Amino acid sequence: MSFHLHVNEQPCDAEPRAGQCLRTYLRERGWFGVKKGCDAGDCGACTVHVDGEPVHSCLYPAVRAEGRSVTTVEGLAAPDGELHPVQRKFLDAQGFQCGFCTAGFLMTTAALEQERGRAHDDGKLDDLPRAFKGNLCRCTGYRAIEDAVRGVRHTERPDAGKAVGRSLGAPAGPQVVTGTARYTFDVEIPGLLHMKLVRSPHPHARIRAVDTSAALRVPGVRAVLTHEDAPATLYSSARHEHPTEDPDDTRVLDDTVRHVGQRVAAVVADSEQAAEEGCRRVEVTYEQLPYVIDPEEAMRPGAPAIHAGKGAEARIARVERNIAGEVHGEIGCVEDGFADAAVVHEETFRTQRVQHASLETHGCVAYFEPKEDGGGERLTVRSSTQTPFLTRRALCALHGLPEDEVRVVAGRVGGGFGGKQEMLTEDIVTLAALKLRRPVKLEFTRAEQFFGATTRHPFTVRVKLGARADGTLTAIRMRVVANTGAYGNHGPAVMFHSVGESFAVYRAPHKKVDAYSVYTNAVPAGAFRGYGLGQVTFAVESAMDELARRLDLDPLAFREKNIIGPGDPMLSPIGEEEDLHIASYGLAQCLGIVREAIAGDRSADDVPEGWLTGQGAAMAMIATGPPGGHYADATVGLLADGTYDIAVGTAEFGNGTTTVHKQITAGALGTTVDRITVRQSDTDVVRHDTGAFGSAGTVVAGKAVLLAAESLAGRLKTFAARHTGVARHLCTLGPESVDCAGRVVTLKELHEAAHAAGAQGELTAEGHWGGSPRSVAFNAQWFRIAVDPDTGEMKILRSVHAADAGKVMNPLQCRGQVEGGVAQALGATLFETVRLDERGEVTTAAFRRYRLPQYADVPRTEVHFMETTDAIGPLGAKSMSESPFNPVAPAFANALRDATGIRFTETPFTRDRVWQAVDREARTTDRETRATGG
193-199 and 205-211 as β-strands: parallel, antiparallel, unpaired? Predict the structure, then answer.
């Protein structure tokens, strides 16, 4: 068979494999701008043009492209490198964050732009919800994408030394829009082997035997790994600076499986197809064991002990009761507080499992590289991770390797949201690479993300509040049960964090908590944006709203009466955190923004007749970093060409830290960001970095960068003074030179002079920050919504978010973090849910069954930043990656209560649930009316 096509105007005659889709065909030929997000035609990340028409290449058979012209995102730009107009617009508007979905939006938009004014133009570009129904973005909230399509420019070009506080674009922006940014698997590695996993069909079982003989006979299969090949060491997949925060309850491959989808064996082969066939031929003999899915049942005496036999070294709170961790505490006496209350309100709230749904799935590739000294090889693991350094530490401990024998590096990461604060692939890929001494790759499918990765913790929260008639809170009590699933990764820490700031934000003399993190035979939960606070904030803020109504008080005024102030202690029944301070206070401003929105709102004026309208608000407080230390090292140096280099360990996955680090450095050194390069997320570049989680990219890594940059500025001025004989205080750093009382020395000359004088040490400086002390950030969300009582349809008429981010380092990127957090939270509030059957098996293991927010689902949120300057954060900044998520669900719930008169206590508030509740309430009211003769 002869086969021929053109890709980006280049001829290609490589014949596709039988059944091969166009996506894999293109990627195998180096067109890495074509992404894999779903392999089901749901997300659009793989969109390319075939003869000018946009197609999802994951569904398009490669053989159908014969004789056609295929264009990928790499082919949009002109041959001379000039960007396509759509690429330029996305760059100017910064219509992306992590950028993994961007090629799909670019290719869709470019095709529709080409249709403009032609006979078959059906007006899609004027109807973006319809235009983008086949494209998903998890990061942006879509506003930035809409602005890009409309040609709205947001990026600025500030003067030298003036970058902080300005809306600079992401340094990787040009690479993102041209498809040349390199994510985890956008590399070519000779001799690469592929891994696929055999997974358990049972929720709880003991493995009695594994027969690998048939699998090993499959052509191309190189190895089959089982629990007999794996280390016996117990560890946690969670990555924390202090590993003792998590139970050690996991093995690389275990002889007991504890949830449907747990990995049982690994097949390594020359191709994915051979590995998949090998998996089908592995025969496993199981002894099925009793299982438990409900956490309340799991804690009862006589329930199956999921981790039976594990001792104190595993750090499981109560093995026999399936309690991974627990916390109990009381301030004052809550019973006295309730006795002193005029009104007491008690209610139970429930939140569901939610998937992170980052478009780049989990995965890594491990390979060997020669050591620099020529003395053998060392292992390199290229991973989609938020924690390169902690992952290296864990791999070395697990496999008995010295740290200088292992390098972990993250390319650009296609979304994280906490889900990649785990070691879910690196451990087993390293095992295979060490055994075979060959490069090995494991890339999760979208389905595996649902049953083989982690989810947000489902919570059940019983809240009891008491208040006097004047609205003064007297007591707060909570019982919290967090379902950690089959393993305790992040379980106790999420549970502990959930009952910290959620209690401390309100003043009450009496507070009590009983909280449990509970094992069940379900897919494990893990770190997720907000780290437990969102679940408990939903309960507390809903209950506060309801209590205000029962007191006949304005819910906003009720909150204002009881919130902590700038000088108040932050008291929680789990104990006061000594390093946590209110180093700036914007909560009152946040609530003031909400009050202004309510007063001037006219969004309900045009609601259809018969629809119900309501408004609601909620607020949240969050620490600007994890407790117990979060460490970052940074180095800033002057290079020979007169430009600067930053080395920092934290990863970039759309969180904007790379941009902020350059802005901080440019400000300290009086230069422009284009004269600064960044090396990052690589264990070779600095001593240590805890990782990109806990909103630490600016307040921890950014602080280390600031200290390094300021130190270098001092060193350069000192050396320039010595070199020129001018007093140090008369030396001023400029973009490309140092002005020493009128004598100008270029930075390139200064570098040469330092080398000539043997003063190379003056050309670099280091910074370190340990993440303590910490401050707090505040957020408030307000919605006006409309509800159709006949169908349950809900429309968001207006969305307003107030954020206390301290000194906003980059307004454009910070606004994007807020908008993305609100959008992701709306998904969890309205329709996202990982559903399990009665055996704990995930039944929503695809985007089309899971229901991510699409363009049409997300409103434009008005984002307001408070005017505060933090006394702890770098240059007055605070974190703002996680916190926007937390007040969204309760704000919507309170608006729904205002519209319908019904308190919804379980997320998500799906349309059918709302309709059923409204219909039930209407029938009850009708019956009562007839019964009274009304």
Answer: unpaired
